Amino acid sequence: MAYAAIADRDHTHPLHEPKSFLTRYIWSQDHKVIAIQYTITAIAIGLVALTLSILMRLQLGFPHSFSLIAPQNYYQFITLHGMIMVIYLLTALFLGGFGNYLIPLMCGARDMVFPYLNMVSYWVYLLAVLILVAGFFVPGGATGSGWTLYPPQAILSGSPGARWGIVCMLASLATFIVAFTMGGLNYVTTVLQARCRGMTMMRMPLSVWGIFMATVLGLLAFPALFVSAIMMTLDCLAGTSFFMPAVSSMGQPLGYNGGSPLLFQHLFWFFGHPEVYIVALPAFGIVSDLLSTHARRHIFGYRMMVWAILAIGCLSFVVWAHHMYVSGMNPYFGFFFATTTLIIAVPTAIKVYNWVLTLWRGDIHLTVPMLFAIGFIFTFINGGLTGLFLGNVPVDVPLSATYFVVAHFHLVMGVSPILVVFGALYHWYPKMTGKMLDDTLGRIHFWITFIGTYMIYLPMYYLGILGLPRRYYAWDEAIQFIPPSVHTMNKWITVSALFVAAVQLVFLFNLVWSLFKGKPAGGNPWRATTLEWQTPDTPPVHGNWGERLPVVYRWAYDYSVPGAKEDFIPQNVPPDKLAPIGHAQGQK
Amino acid sequence: MNIWVAFGALIVGVIVWFLLVKRLSTRSWERHGSSVHVRHGRGDVGEVGVPPARIALWVFLAVITSLFGLFISAYFIRMGHGHGAVHGISDWHPVSKPPILWFNSVVLVLSSAAMQAARHSVRLNQRGRVRGYLFAGGAFAILFLTGQLAGWHQLRDSGYGLTSGPASAFFYVLTGVHGLHLLGGLVVWLKTAARMRTRAVELIEVRLSIELCTVYWHYLLLVWLVMFALLLST
């Protein structure tokens, strides 16, 4: 029983090609259009989060200079910045954006296996974003409980948005999870079922592996957030006491009794830690492909890379309570979770070594995607090694509430994946649009972003070791031990952040400008081996492959094969089209 | 807390099993066997025989397993952790289970059995029976949902509202979430049943829908039995 995604074109059952503008670009079921819709929406909401972070930085660098940033606004900005960046930008962009674009093209399918479901997934995601944004405008404003939404404070009247803000946030998250589940079913099933002939699991590019495993993690972990969202909404609206302990507000008992805030933390982090890898694994996969392509060298240890992705995926479910060392949970758990946390560093380190060894003696082309990929390795090591500090209970306890943690998680799961997102956009933009992004603007974008993020986050490590507490609106007289130099440092960080934010506008300009004025890219500008670069049309048309589906004869990393005419052999080149390898080697 | 670790171990076990089955040991960079057909072995490239909808259903069942597994862990944790206003005294008071739940359980078993019979009749190509059993399966499911609503009323009338305590709150949430999943199944059932009503449709065209509905029905029956046992025992 053949079906559309893996069938050669059959004229008796034509693919339902879109006819009008509406079906082609708006209600499209084409995975490439849906991918671009996801990408644009995610970037748009990401810009909101970027703006919020700038507002926070202005307050921290120049306290009390901006009357429009009141303390409750500051907490709303923190909350929304975190939630948007982690879920609505990174998760949606990696899985909805790159997942949608790359899975069918890299696997040699005509589309996702359920195109209609795919379309619905995007529109439900958009709905989730709109509900999230609506939170700003409800009475009381958006929730200001921190991105972790811990009860009881999230629904107590002291927090901003304790009534409707938090309900909007929970409703938006639940909606997002529904959208993600629809998309995720598609990604997993497409990878398992719609690969073209010859594309075995162990010939798939690592990008697909990373996205695949991240989707599996998402499908199993997001239910935890869903469960906590349902129970917290009931606590908030119906007055149940799942998470709410007996508590008084302004001297009045609130009618809650016996709930367990710790239960919420367990549920939240059972989702929250896999979420780190939902973001990181696609980044790992994509960066592997970027490094291999632009270093003209096969990925070092392909099998080990796949195993590491799977091992990280499994382990990510048994480390969640390392976010809760200071929560008051049973201290013996700390021992267990510190151990698993340190174990997860092993497969991660294997990946880092393999990336470095891929570069070793490679023919490195310092293209813009490559710059971002190398930038990722640096940043990931910096952020990751400080994770080893924080994974140990005795070190984490004094550092947990300080800027050390802010620097750690921003470098490891903020900046690192974002660098990959940029690298990937520079890498695949030519396939998406047929135009190259401007190289000079790209280099400006890279260097200011890369150096700028270090100017922001390296000082924060120092501030953290000094003991500067995070989550504070201002450090006035209340904290006597902080030397005045901290304020100078905060100004420095804020100014750096302004530069980094401004240069993102250069990137946006580049995206739009190159669409019209960019150099034509041709079908395979990076001379890459993977299938998406072998489509008959660029950008690929509906159905991707013309009359016949590609057939795959080799793995995705045949770069600089000794004796081959070119320094890359695409996956779909049959062996009889190659120069006889033994003969060529004999001439050497 | 043990249940959390067990849950993690379960997931690890499933994935390790997956690893072993898929034998991730292919040396895909080596050039032996130049023909594509050598590599196109069993279990490799999208097995054309397995419809994607079936894979998707099983993946979805894994998602629901995670969902209900987490609800049940939350149930146990809340039971153990909850402390009343007076420290150290648990606020967990078991609710009186509405007797109608026994009747509902029998109805859901019948519903599942009818779906199974419909699936069997498709194989025997007995069109009339397929329609009959399919209709019965859906009707029993609707009866089950009505019975659950009646159960909610009985519970409320005996003094256990949503906010009366954690046990009754969990009762409403667990049965509610299970009911919503069954309701979702009924939407698919309704589509299938509607297609069956057109004379032109061949059995072969609805075979897959009926099969997947049946699997989903059995699965929700299993979830219900686990939950019912949990509610009865606590």
What would you say this structure looks like, in words?
Chain A has 588 residues and is mostly helical. Helices cover 62% and strands 1% of the residues of chain A. Chain A has a single domain, classed as Cytochrome C Oxidase, Chain A, CATH 1.20.210. In chain A, strands 1-2 form a two-stranded antiparallel ribbon. Chain B has 234 residues and is mainly α. In chain B, 74% of the residues lie in helices and 0% in strands. The two termini of chain B are 17 Å apart. Chains A and B meet through helix 5, helix 6, helix 7 and helix 8 of A and helix 1, helix 3 and helix 6 of B.
Q: In whole angstroms, how far apart are the ends of chain B?
A: 17 Å
Name the beta content range of chain B. under 5%
Strand arrangement in the largest pleated sheet of chain A: 1-2
Global structural class of chain A: mainly alpha
- The termini of chain A sit apart by 50 Å
| CATH architecture assignment name of the domain at 99-234 in chain B | Up-down Bundle
CATH class of the domain at 99-234 in chain B: Mainly Alpha
| Mean pLDDT figure of chain A | 91
- Name the average pLDDT of chain B: 83
Tally of alpha and pi helices of chain A: 15
Sheet having the most strands of chain B: none
Shape of chain B: flat
How many domains of chain A? The number is: 1
CATH class of chain A: Mainly Alpha
> In oligomeric terms, what are we looking at?
heterodimer
According to CATH, the fold-level topology of chain A is Cytochrome C Oxidase, Chain A
Low-pLDDT parts of chain A are: 582-588
H/E series of chain A: HHHHHHEEHHHHHHHHH
- Architecture of chain A, CATH level 2? Up-down Bundle
